[in-house]
Amino acid sequence: MELLFSSIAIVISISSLLWTIFSSRAQRQLLALTSNNTNIVGIASQISELPNVLKFHGIENPEEELKKHDVTAEEFAYLVGIFILGGTYYRTAPNVSEIFAKGSYRHNMCLAPATRRAWPLLRRMITKSPYRDRLDEIIEKLDQQSCLYSLIFKHTLRSLKI
């Protein structure tokens, strides 16, 4: 009987040790991700003061590109920060589907035409990932809906002769 209890105690101890090692590794990875992205957001905020640093992200004529996409350097820096932090949340959230649910914070940001106009530039600042892929899908869908609504509106105006 003592041997049975000793064996059970050893199994529980080993399981506990393995769980601690696994949890510690996962916690270190999460901490590294969070710390890295927090630092990146801090650096990205400097875009507003130094828009030419966008050259290092493949945006050759930053001032021209920002103007073309109808976004100021300050607004772009804000969007970069918000979407990088969103990526961190996306990778660590217990329920990923809620992040882009209609009415959610990020979905509402994607609804804004200004966000969608800035997206081609903004996506260059976000690492290729399922998060960015999901944003691509949402932006494309919203753009298609916007075009459809615009066509319906124009057709309605023509039919009403307004």
Average pLDDT, to the nearest integer?
81
Query: What's the tally of helices?
Result: 6
Shape estimate? elongated
Count of distinct structural domains: 1
Fraction in helix: over 70%
Q: Could you spell the SSE succession in H and E letters? A: HHHHHH
Question: How would you characterize the largest beta sheet?
Answer: none
Strand elements, count: 0
Proportion of residues in β-strands: under 5%
Structural class per helix/strand content? mainly alpha
- Report the C-alpha radius of gyration, rounded: 24 Å
Write a compact overview of the structure shown:
This protein has 162 residues and is mainly α. It is 73% helix and 0% strand.
What does this structure look like?
The protein is mainly α. It has one domain (38-160). It has 6 helices and no strands. α1 packs antiparallel against α3.
Helices, strands, pairings?
Elements: H1 2-44, H2 62-68, H3 73-92, H4 105-111, H5 113-122, H6 130-160
Notable traits:
single chain; 162 residues; mainly alpha; 6 helices; 0% strand
